[in-house]
Amino acid sequence: MFYKCTALSNATIGNGVTTIGKSAFESCTGLTSIKLPSSVDSIGNYAFYKCDSLTSIYVASPTPAKLGSGRIRLVSDYNSTTLYVPRGSLTTYQTTNIWKNFVNIVEYGLKVGDVFEVNNINYRVTSDSLQTVEVTYKSSDTSKNGVEYADGYSGTIVIPESVTNEGLTYSVTSIGESAFSGCTALTGVEIPASVTMVDMSAFIGCSALANVNMTGTTPPILNNGSFADSQYASVIVRVPDGALAAYQSADNWKEFKNIVEYDVTGIDNVVENEIAVKISAAGLSLEGCEGKPVAIYKANGSLVKNIDAYDGSEIVLDKCVYIVRVNNKVVKVKL
After folding, report:
1. Which CATH number fits domain 268-334: 3.10.20, 2.120.10, 3.40.50, 2.60.40?
2. Nearest C-alpha neighbor of 35 from the set 17, 13, 50
3. Burial readout 277-309 (b: 16 or more C-beta within 10 A, e: otherwise)
4. Pairing verdict, β 10-12 and 33-36
């Protein structure tokens, strides 16, 4: 791929790439650093051989990628190249054949309990080895640092299935305790299928909350006190087609008086030509949608992109069929 590309100095492999081929970067003498996404699960022999300037390799997967067969040489000098691995996976790499040859293996990334923000939503790391996070509170007043309520959230919040920080991708698996508590301006929330638990007091005090959209067919654990008693009557819970019975019989979810089914993708509500979509080689762009929230789904309902305020730039996407939602308008697009 980049064999003997001496002008290459840094490389970041895009997420979704699964294989680094044999001799892919061999003899790239100017290469000093390369970052591999968690999707890479196989690396061919001599992939970074004779990269004389290579000082760092960052891997995002806690599981070491499989290497080539025979006399395996990943790099020329295991002493001069530092291998950076996700926090919690140090021992795994230190005990895996070939990978353990790196003299310097250093952990990077966040530790359990660390908080970071992506698209105006705060996340707390719950496992560094499994790379999972929970949605956590966000205060609008910095003087309230450490106080667990979330008056900083407002409008409709769309929670993604995963988020990326420092090159590591974390799965969003829970809504933390008091995550949205006190959000009097929160009107709606979309909870992805990756979430398996909603903790205590998550939505207590959200007086304007009217809609909770669930994209998973299996109800997540809903702890006692996640919602106020009054919210069981006032909030509409929208669940995927075919999941109504599951939610109506699940602990605490069954307390909601208004649970209705809907098409997760929004295909049933597609209105052609109401969203101006410009398709490009790399993806698409939207006309007249600047400053508006944009959500893009695959046809199976999985969330691909969630943009709080679209800036008019090109949205990079793989070739596929997508459902693009801008506010309440939805359009189906094939790239």
Report:
1. 2.60.40
2. 13
3. beeeeebbbbeebeeebbbbbeeebebbbbbee
4. parallel
Which amino acid belongs to residue 307? Answer: I
This prediction has a pTM of 0.68
Sequence-distant (6+) residues with CB within 8 A of 182 are 149, 150, 151, 204, 205, 206
Euclidean distance between the first and final Cα of the chain, in Å? 26
d(CA 115, CA 117): 7
How far is it, in rounded angstroms, from Cα 54 to Cα 77? 9
Mean pLDDT for all residues in the chain: 87
Asked if 58 and 36 touch (Cβ cutoff 8 Å), the reply is yes
Q: Taking a C-beta distance cutoff of 8 angstroms, is the pair 306, 135 a contact?
A: no
Q: Does domain 115-262 have CATH number 3.80.10.10?
A: yes
pLDDT digits (tens, 9 = 90+) for 279-304: 887 888 888 888 888 888 876 666 78
Q: pLDDT of 173-194, one tens digit each?
A: 999 999 999 999 999 999 999 9
Please name the residue that has the structure tokens 């090159």.
167
